[in-house]
Amino acid sequence: MAMPRSTAKGFLASLLDFSFSSLITTRIIKVVYVILTIVISLIAVVYFIVGLAGLASGNVGFGLAGIIAAPIGWLIYMIGTRISLELVIILFKIGDDVRRIADGNSPLSGATGQSFAPGAAGYGPPTATGYPPAAPGGYPPPAPGGMYPPPPAT
């Protein structure tokens, strides 16, 4: 199980943690974004300069293509980079939330850390079969075979 961020290991200790109990991605994601921004911007500047050189040498089509494509390509790559890195962070936040729910430290798990298992407190009062009287959505509990009956006619 990963450590909470408040008791996380140092960077080097996390980097050499072969059990992967301490994660480094959330610590270095800002540095990765800065580096990618610099690299993408330098590439766009090079393309823009090549476009200007193409115009100066008389190759108007090549020059205009470079001048127009450089800022558009920069914008597209920056948006893609940002979305990709945000997705990585979202996955880590989902992992943190799931860990809190599993540990019973979430408002979703109840004040006493109770689970949402059928028949558990907070999900519905237990019955003789161990199921709450009604499953979420107002449907009756599943039959012993595990299949829900068809929805009631309206």
What features would you describe in this structure?
This protein is mainly α. The chain has a domain at about 30-100. Helix content is about 55%, strand content about 0%. The chain contains 3 helices and no strands. It has helices spanning about 10-15, 25-55, 60-105. α2 packs antiparallel against α3 (about 60-105). The protein is elongated, with a radius of gyration of 27 Å. The two termini are about 45 Å apart.
Largest sheet: none
Oligomer: single chain
Strand content: under 5%
Radius of gyration: 27 Å
Order of helices and strands: HHH
Number of DSSP strand runs: 0
Structural class comes to: mainly alpha
| Poorly predicted ranges | 111-115, 119-123
Percent in helix: 40-55%
Average pLDDT rating:
77
Distance between the termini: 47 Å
Instruction: List the total number of helices.
Output: 3
Choose one word for the global shape.
elongated
Brief descriptors of the model:
single chain; 154 residues; mainly alpha; 3 helices; 0% strand
Layout of helices and strands:
Elements: H1 11-15, H2 25-56, H3 60-103
Helix pairs in contact: 2-3
Q: How would you briefly describe this protein structure?
A:
This protein is an all-alpha fold.
